[in-house]
Amino acid sequence: MTGDSAEHGAQSYSGVQVAISEAESARDDAMNHPCLVAGTASQALAEEVARRSGIPLLDRRIERFPDGELYVRLSDSVRGRDAFIVQSTCAPVNDNLFELLLLLDTLRRASAGRITAIIPYYGYARQDRKSAGREPITAKLVANLVATAGADRVLSVDLHSPAIQGFFEIGMDHTSAIPLLTEYLRSRLPRESVLVSPDTGGVKRVDTYARMLDLPIAILHKRRANAREVEIAAVVGDVRGKVPVIVDDIIATGGTIRRAVDTLVAAGARPDVWVVATHGVLAGDVIANLSHPQIREIVVTDTIPISPTLRAGLPRLQVVSVADLLASAIHRLHNGLSLSALFPQGGAQPI
Ligand code: R5P
């Protein structure tokens, strides 16, 4: 007797003896183990999480029909298992978001026990309220879509606004890469550094960095000059003679950073600027903007993959991995342990 039909033993369900095969017994064991699925946007990060957590990636097919529709299939059974998907909704945002929804639907219809969507970079987050009439609130729409598609929980890293956590009716864990980023900076920044928020919306974030690095802060006040341009109207805090460290959550085109560098240097800061942000969206004219001669180093995480072209175009870019953070989060969620240790300040909510 071999394979699936091999009788391996018997288990008792409600007093009824049920013969189970060797393969079924192995599957029974597997149900106690979490499973991990990589979305295409986060393939490299998911591989790293798999390596560090010891949870192998599930074999899956993601293909495109000639008309552009997506096809998804898992090769193995996930029935009853604690399933984790890793997929950032970065560019191409709509494709990656829809692929995440299809993966969730696939796991739900394949009867996974619990499904957690790990969305290291939560795209569409910047539209988190209506700033004018007749606009959507995309951060809420995405939360609805993810829950409807089948997620029981969501875990993300440094949301653009912490309030987005409340957009979910399902469990939502908001972790932060700030402890990793401050750890990287701690031994590298000179003592006479000042942490700078490029806008007033980032004050809490820069304050979290300041408490962890024990450094002073300054804030730039941004004002809209016209429909396309913003200008920096004021520098609040002492930057004269100091090494500025600009702290943001996202670097997209790098326009905010370029303007902030010019303003800080004009205000007397040293022309030796550091830039740190969790998410390197890195779009549009980012290479030109971040090739500013007064920028020494740009530090981001790998919540979003960085193409070889961007790597080559931005030699001063350093990438800190969130793979350990995500592997720890999976271990803690699977084993019903608290996630507080993953937040800055040992339990306080990030930013
Ligand atoms: C804005 O609220 C964000 O925190 C970032 O400052 C902004 O998204 C960066 O965009 P960009 O790099 O295109 O200036």
Task: Write up this protein.
This protein is of the alpha/beta class. It contains 10 helices and 16 strands. A 7-stranded mixed sheet has the order 12-11-10-13-14-15-16. A 5-stranded parallel sheet has the order 3-6-7-8-9, with helices on both faces. Strand 14, helix 8 and strand 15 form a beta-alpha-beta unit. The chain is elongated. The termini are far apart. The N terminus and C terminus are likely disordered. The structure holds ribose-5-phosphate. Ribose-5-phosphate (R5P) binds next to strand 13 and helix 7. Ribose-5-phosphate binds next to strand 13 and helix 7.
Number of helices: 10
Strand content range: 25-35%
| Unreliable parts | 1-7, 346-351
Hetero compounds: ribose-5-phosphate
- Spatial order of the strands in the main sheet? 12-11-10-13-14-15-16
Mean pLDDT: 91
Distance between the termini: 59 Å
What does the largest sheet look like? Answer: 7 strands, mixed
Shape: elongated
Class computed from helices, strands and strand pairing: alpha/beta
Computed Rg = 23 Å
Helix content: 25-40%
Number of strands: 16
Order of helices and strands: EEHEHEEEHEHEEHEHEEEHEHEHEH
Note the main attributes of this structure.
about 25% strand, binds ribose-5-phosphate, disordered C terminus, elongated, disordered N terminus, 5-stranded parallel β-sheet, alpha/beta, 7-stranded mixed β-sheet, about 30% helix, about 350 residues, 10 helices, 16 strands
